[in-house]
Amino acid sequence: GESVGLHLPTLSVQEGDNSIINCAYSNSASDYFIWYKQESGKGPQFIIDIRSNMDKRQGQRVTVLLNKTVKHLSLQIAATQPGDSAVYFCAEKATGYALNFGKGTSLLVTP
Amino acid sequence: DTEVTQTPKHLVMGMTNKKSLKCEQHMGHRAMYWYKQKAKKPPELMFVYSYEKLSINESVPSRFSPECPNSSLLNLHLHALQPEDSALYLCASSQESTGGNSPLHFGNGTRLTVT
Question: How far is B18 from chain A (nearest CA, A)?
């Protein structure tokens, strides 16, 4: 099937800085997108989602941007904290199909 | 804490054993899922149940047998597994199945080791 991938497998940021995690997708029929955070020894935790009729959505310290023209999704984390260190997965789905996960980006927050 | 509960947290089994993984959710979700995750890889879909009926089987070997006794419970029966089946097995649920757009909520998984 079509794939969802990430530009950077690892990202290291300093505490307090903003983080940006990018994701490219290839299925033009995808209409729903989710970001998950997975800490060591735990299951993926829902962070934020966005539907294809939107290009931006904000949560607590997080913003997801969707550019359907270039099939690109990003997760912005403001004032990154040590507790944000984890693997982040983007996931996409088209109506009628199951959720498809991208490869993941490991975020490391350094003091 | 997750609202999807998986037991056991860890499981070690031999290749001739039969064991079961269990999953429970009380969010009233109508879709439940089994995913398999290898180290440093994304979760891979195995099965989807929608309204207690199997709706997707991603060509999973028959040594994995899912069961959905009711809308809150999901089991994965394991028999004659291979060492390469060692992985984290994740259960998830969602309000809607593939026809809708709602997030999946995951449990913390069962870490399975096949010896």
Answer: 24
